[in-house]
Every structure is written in C-alpha cells, then in structure tokens.
Write a structure and sequence with these properties.
Helix content: 40-55%
Number of helices: 16
Distance between the termini: 41 Å
Number of domains: 3
CATH superfamily of the largest domain: HUPs
Strand order of the largest sheet: 4-3-9-10
Shape: elongated
Strand content: 5-15%
CATH topology of the largest domain: Rossmann fold
C-alpha cells in the first residue's frame, strides 16, 4: 500500500503499521454496551471512533467483519465477581423481567447509534444467546488446568496461567499486586473464600435461589462471568486470532486483560493482533459514566433537557464534537466546546454548498490534491480525525476565497474539493448528508423567502428587504448579496 495505515497498539504501546492477517479480509471486535440504562455521551465515543475505523477500512478496500456484542447478562454492579447483575437489579427496581429491560435499552442504544449515523456492525451477538459457547470455552480452559470449580462456581487461575504467560501485559498490572489488593487493602468480598487467589476471576457463577437470570451448566445452575462472553463470541465469529479489538480505555483492566487470558488459555493462541482503546469523556475532570452518576443521556443532548446543558445539540453536532479530538485523547465536556463544534460543522457545510455555485477560474490545479493527501495522511496516522478536519478547514478557506472572488479555483480543484468532502467528511467521518443543508423543507422555505426579498428589492421596497435580511440574521441565517442574486447559509 502506497500510504499505509498506522494504529497505536495498546498491547505494545507503539504505533504500528496495520497489516491484516488475511488481507483483504479484516476481523474487528468492539465491546458493546451493558443494556441496563439509556445510552449516554460516554457511550457515543467508542462507537463513533470504531465506526470511523470501520468506514475507513472499507475506504481502503478491506472487507471488514465488524462484531459488536450486547451484554445482557453477567455484568455485576461493581464490575467484578460480586454483587447483583446490573440488568437484574434494574429489572427488580422497575418491576420488569430482565429481558424486558435488555430489550428496552438495546432498542434505545440502536436508535442512538442510528441518529449518530453509526453504521450497524456486521454481527451483533448477545451474551444470553451464547451461553452454550461460553460453557464450552470454560470446559476447554478447565481441561488445560487453568480454571477450577469451587462451590458450584468456576474461577480462572491467574497464578497458574502466569507461570507460562504474561498476565497483565496489556494493562500493566502485576499479578502479585493484584493478589495483595490495591494499596495492600484486603476486602472481604462475597465469594472471596471460594477463590484460591484474590486475582482470580469468575468464569461461571453459581446463582442463589433468588437470582432470576440463570442457566444449567456442568457445575451449577448459574450464569457466566462478564469477561467470558467476549472471548467466546469473538472466537465464534472471528476465529482464534483476529486483527483488531476495540473498546474504551476503562476496559483495559479487568475486562480486556481477562479476555486475553481466557482466549489464550482455551486455545493456546494470542487472540488479538492490534488492541485499540479510545480515551474517556470527562465532566470537570472526572470520567463520565452511569456508575458515577455524572452522565448525560444522548436523548438529553438532543432535547436540551439536562441541568448541565444550555441548549439542545443535534446528533451531528455531538459526532463532530467527538471527531475534533484524537480518539486517544481525553475529551472534557462543555457547552462551549459543543457550540464551537456546531459552528465549525456549519462552516464546512456552507463551503460544501458554495462548491455548487462556483464558476471555474484560472487557478492552479494543485491545491485540492495537496489538501486531500494531507487529510488522508492524517487518517493513516493513527486515525487522526482532528488533523484531518484541520485540513478540511484549509479546503474551506480556499472555497470561500473563490466564492468571494478573491482567489479563483480551477475546475479540477472544485471537483477535487467536492470529492474530498463527499468521501471524507460525509463518508469516512460519517457526518450525515441530510444535514448538509439542514432540512429539505428549510431549504425550500429559504428559497421562497429570498425570492420574496428579491421582489421587494426590485420594486425598491428596501425597508421590507432589509427587514427580511435582519430577521434571518437574528435566526442565525447569513444572507449574502451578489451580482447573481442572494445566497444564504446557516451561521
């Protein structure tokens, strides 16, 4: 490949050239949501990040199988092996069946992904639909002597695995420290006496009589641990070793570290060639999340109905806000940042619209090709959407200069910029094309208003024409008068 793609591999902590194991085929797994509540801004970031990667791999010619799971069982409230299942707890509070809760919030998640213009994954398996596969993987791990049954539950033996494998390589955690406990503080946890070592984690949990979500297994009537689902489903749909595993940085430990141990423990092979992690969204420097109670639902963003929001923001504003930062950098929430993103996207859209009105001049036929190359160089440099967008703004400045008559563009450059916007902004970056002009009805209405204003000017009724212009300005529409008539754009 003339311009290869480089991505940061969390496993090696290096930026590496992406070379699929079986090009042009690519296997990609991304950890999906635990569906016990409405999707929030923190959810949007990983799924927008890996949607862009999915789109870009397609743009580069790869045939990508994108698997993203739904966690509807086994994820306990403290993200470890103890406590209540998050979905079962929500069902108890809401007096619903757990699968009603899972269905409700899966639907809510899908709708949020749709309005954010994320492409659906190739396969979207659920944990509850793959109990058999999880039990079979646990059997294999036990057959290798890397797991043990205790009181009807099954635990992965981290110390035994660590004798021949580097447990903790992904997260940087050292097993001895995990056994001692954080800060040498030992916690008396429910079921702790079942484990040989504090660092061991559950593959299968025996359910108490009151537990609703449970299945028969060789060890007990129970349910799978949180981590085993992703190992079992990634193997089923992508094979023992696949190309890319993505997720939020908060999943490095224990979830992804445990995935590596389980998968390698069951088949002897490292499961993933490139691990990719997006950084967190924060509010006042703290991670946004349901468990911390400081999250803003995506629906609240779209309606403006949250105490921290000064207005409603469209799905495309939220998406653009994400893309303005590199996926590996922390992104702190603020109304100012979202409003800046809203205006910035509007500027790019206005420039895109200007391309249809430009008349070719005698400019040099080189600027569009140069900027396009810079955009894709940024994308090839660890999916740097922030730098790619900065080059799109360079393109916007050239278009606006041509529109004002300051610096004409050759026909090839006009077409080059149109292709760049279509392929990159509205293709790879996934900004929705139906918002290029905001709304078809608005466009038709604006054309009508400007024709009325033109008629007023023709009969020299300047008070009416000025009033229309001023009112449109107040409503954040910019009207420009030119020799070929007036044009409008969203301010």
């Amino acid at each position: 490949m003339e311009h290869p793609l480089f991505i940061t591999n969390s496993l090696t902590r290096n930026k590496e050239q992406f070379v699929p194991a079986n090009a042009p085929f690519v296997g990609m797994y991304v950890c999906g949501p635990t569906v016990y509540g409405p999707p929030h801004l923190g959810h949007a970031r990983p799924y927008i990040t890996f949607d862009v990667l999915f789109r870009y791999l397609h743009h580069l010619g790869y045939k990508t199988r994108y698997v993203r799971n739904i966690t509807d069982v086994g994820h306990l409230v403290d993200d470890s092996d103890d406590g209540e299942d998050k979905i079962a707890k929500k069902a108890r509070i809401e007096k619903l069946e757990p699968m009603e809760v899972a269905k409700m919030y899966t639907d809510s998640f899908h709708e949020a992904m749709r309005v954010l213009n994320n492409l659906p994954p190739s396969i979207e398996p659920s944990a509850s639909g793959h109990i058999i596969e999880q039990i079979e993987m646990i059997r294999k791990i036990m057959d290798k002597g890397l797991a043990y049954e205790s009181g009807g539950s099954v635990y992965f033996d981290v110390i035994k695995y660590g004798e021949d494998n580097d447990y903790g390589k992904l997260s940087g955690r050292i097993p001895d420290e995990l056994i001692a406990g954080a800060g040498n503080e030992r916690r008396e946890l429910e079921g702790q006496d079942e484990k040989r070592h504090a660092a061991d984690f559950a593959l299968w949990k025996k359910a108490d009589p009151a537990h609703i979500m449970k299945w028969p297994s060789p060890w007990s009537m129970g349910f799978p641990g949180w981590h085993i689902e992703c190992s079992a489903m990634s193997v089923k749909y992508l094979g023992d070793t696949f190309d890319i595993h993505g997720g939020g940085m908060d999943l490095l430990f224990p979830h992804h570290e445990s995935e590596i141990a389980q998968s390698k423990g069951s088949c002897g092979k490292a499961p993933v060639r490139y691990w990719m992690h997006n950084n967190m969204i924060t509010i006042n420097g703290r991670k946004m999340g349901k468990s911390l109670g400081n999250f803003i639902n995506l629906e609240e963003f779209f309606t403006g109905k949250h105490k921290l929001l000064t207005k409603a923001y469209s799905p495309m504003t939220v998406r653009f806000y994400m893309l303005q930062a590199h996926y590996r950098s922390t992104l702190d929430f603020s109304n100012e940042a979202l409003q800046s993103a809203e205006k910035a996207f509007a500027k790019l859209v206005n420039s895109y619209q200007e391309l249809d009105r430009l008349k070719p001049g005698d400019g040099k036929e080189s600027v569009a090709a140069k900027i396009s190359r810079a955009c894709y160089d940024a994308m090839n440099d660890d999916l740097n959407t922030a730098i790619a967008l900065s080059h799109l703004f360079d393109a916007s400045r050239h278009v606006n200069a041509a529109a004002s008559g300051e610096r004409p563009l050759a026909a090839a450059d006009i077409e080059g910029f149109r292709k760049l916007f279509d392929e990159l902004l509205f293709g790879v970056l996934g900004m929705r094309t139906d918002e290029k002009t905001g709304d078809g009805d608005v466009e038709g209405l604006m054309d009508l208003v400007l024709s009325i204003r033109a008629e007023a000017k023709a009969r020299k009724d300047f008070s009416v024409s000025d009033k229309i212009r001023d009112e449109l300005t107040r409503l954040n529409f910019v009207v420009k008068d030119g020799k070929d008539g007036a044009t409008w754009s969203k301010g």
